[in-house]
Amino acid sequence: MPQEIELKLAVPDTALAPLAAWLDANGEAQGEAILLNVYLDTPERDLAQARAALRLRRKGAQWLQTLKTAGSSQAGLATRHEWETEIAGEAIDLQRFPAEAQAVLAPMIGRLAPVFRTDFVRRTWLVSQDGARIEAALDTGTITAPGNTAQEPIQELELEWLDGDAAHAADALRAFAARLAGIATLAPSDLSKAARGYRLAGIAEGKPS
Asked: In whole angstroms, what is the distance from residue 100 CA to residue 77 CA?
């Protein structure tokens, strides 16, 4: 089962430029992309209650569907299961998911509808730490929800373990974050973009946040 291990750090305004400059000097730049994302759920919020998130993402001409299921998050370090596949357009294609993901979505597939959006610019670098290969992704953008004129800013750095010794992935991510602490003040964040989106959508719908 695919597993995502990442460390999320909130980035203040004053840290954006020095952080990007340091990563340019010490990492392998992978470029910049505009990512347009819509998250779906049932009216009863079945996925949210199961601590799962279903996303459609447009990256240039490419469409991706992603399902992330329950995991753990502590001091910004998150571990969870993730399935992602390419699709033809802006609609969930259940058959493109592996069997494990299909089993989660099949009972609710006819009741899924958009709940909120996260749209942002992502700059990425590949970096190394203690034998681990890590993707550093700097995201800046907004979270929006239907019926709510308010927006939440996205301004965060995601450090995702790509390969190396999986048993020490968390240690490698924390060690790299410690190096960045000398460049800027970055606070660990346990709230995913999905969690923040559900909170914003709940306010719009008059539900407890």
From this structure: 24
Read off the pLDDT band of 74 (50, 70, 90).
low
d(CA 53, CA 66): 8
Measured between its terminal Cα atoms, the distance across the chain in Å is 32
CA distance 148 to 127: 38
Residue 38: both structure tokens together: 């819509």
The amino acid sitting at 107 is P
Find the length of the chain: 209
Domain boundaries defined on the chain: 3-204
Residue that is written with structure tokens 């709510």 in the block:
148
- Count other Cβ atoms within 10 Å, centred on residue 68: 22
The answer to whether the CB of 180 falls within 8 A of the CB of 25 is no
Q: Tell me the three state secondary structure of residue 47.
A: helix
Token pair 């240690």: residue: 171
* Spatial distance between the Cα atoms of 49 and 30, rounded to a whole number of angstroms: 35
**In 63-168, alpha helices (H):** 99-105
User: Does the domain at residues 3-204 carry the CATH identifier 2.40.320.10?
Assistant: yes
Helices of type H across 87-188: 99-105, 169-180
Q: What pLDDT is stored for residue 3 in this prediction?
A: 77
What is the torsional sign of CA 115, 120, 124, 129?
A: negative
Report the pLDDT value the prediction gives residue 204, as an integer from 0 to 100: 47
- Give every CB contact of residue 140 below 8 A, 6+ residues apart in sequence: 16, 120, 121, 153, 154, 155
